[in-house]
Specification:
- This protein is of the alpha/beta class.
- The chain has a single domain, classed as Ribokinase (UDP-N-acetylmuramoyl-L-alanine:D-glutamate ligase), CATH 3.40.1190.
- About 50% of the residues lie in helices and about 15% in strands.
- It contains 10 helices and 9 strands.
- It has a 9-stranded mixed beta sheet, sandwiched between helices.
């Protein structure tokens, strides 16, 4: 079923609302509980530290639900999911719903492999605050053929936007659709976020860490829609700036962390 695209705005850094949210994040240092994939755990933690949040990688079945009650936000990323991971994620998500803790679902490679797709379906049923995925993943979650290849997307984000809007309407979740152009929608409004750089696709875990950044903004932003938009805009701005200074993917990854730690400081980030 096709969905009309509502009026769209473009969001860029710097923006007064986003600057306010970033200042609140740094002032509060929200504790973000991450059950994420093994490939990106270290980089995800470093991204959260760089922006001013506090990461916690508590993944055991015995502790996952308990820690949700302590955390300010939760990230669930199914990238390297195992049976114990799935159990911990479902327990954490159920606890987040019960406690009102905002949470982000990153449905890595949903629609490609049967087991992870079934787990993601159960997690979507628990109504994540935000779903962040690439075009193929969002299409798969919306019941369409996303033509995904592993964790990569073979579909443009623009082509998946109607599916993202329909998914948001059906689940009540904000959907953050990543691609060459990022889109954030709650089913009634849409913002597009440009920026970033192709080097971001050559560093493992960039998309996954965006999910963590969205989680960090959830406790300090006025709405989940604004949290996802703020994280996406800042992510793109930092990525573009870091790429302009990098000699390749290795120096880019280091430069990304450096620029993320200084964005918003007048003497450290051009245009802030």
């Amino acid at each position: 079923m096709s969905v009309p695209v509502p009026g769209m705005e473009s969001l860029e850094w710097p923006h007064p609302d986003l600057q306010d949210d970033l200042a609140r994040l740094r002032g509060r240092s929200p504790l973000v509980h991450c059950i994420t994939n093994a490939v990106v755990t270290n980089f995800t933690a470093n991204v959260l530290l760089a922006v001013g949040a506090a990461p916690a990688m508590v993944v055991s079945v015995e502790e996952a639900a308990e820690f949700v009650r302590i955390a300010d936000a939760l990230l669930l990323n199914v990238g390297t999911i195992t049976v114990p991971d799935a159990e911990a994620m479902l327990m954490a998500a159920e606890t987040a719903v019960a406690t009102g803790t905002p949470w982000v679902l990153d449905p890595v490679a949903a629609g490609v492999l049967t087991y992870r797709t079934s787990v993601v379906g159960k997690l979507v049923g628990l109504r994540p605050t935000v779903i962040r995925g690439n075009a193929s993943e969002i299409l798969a979650l919306n019941g369409l053929n996303g033509a995904g290849r592993g964790v990569d997307s073979t579909v443009a984000s623009t082509d998946a936007l109607p599916a993202a809007i329909e998914l948001a309407r059906g689940t009540g979740s904000v959907v953050a659709l990543s691609g060459k152009v990022d889109y954030v929608t709650d089913g009634e409004q849409v913002v597009s976020v440009e920026g970033g750089h192709e080097l971001m696709s050559r560093v493992t875990g960039m998309g996954c860490t965006l999910g963590a950044l969205i989680a960090a903004f959830l406790p300090v932003s006025a709405t989940p829609f604004r949290a996802a938009a703020a994280a996406s805009a800042i992510f793109g701005a930092v990525g573009g700036d870091a790429a302009g200074r990098a000699g390749g993917p290795g120096s880019f990854a280091v430069g990304f962390l450096d620029r993320l730690s200084t964005i918003g400081l007048q003497d450290a980030f051009q245009g802030a």
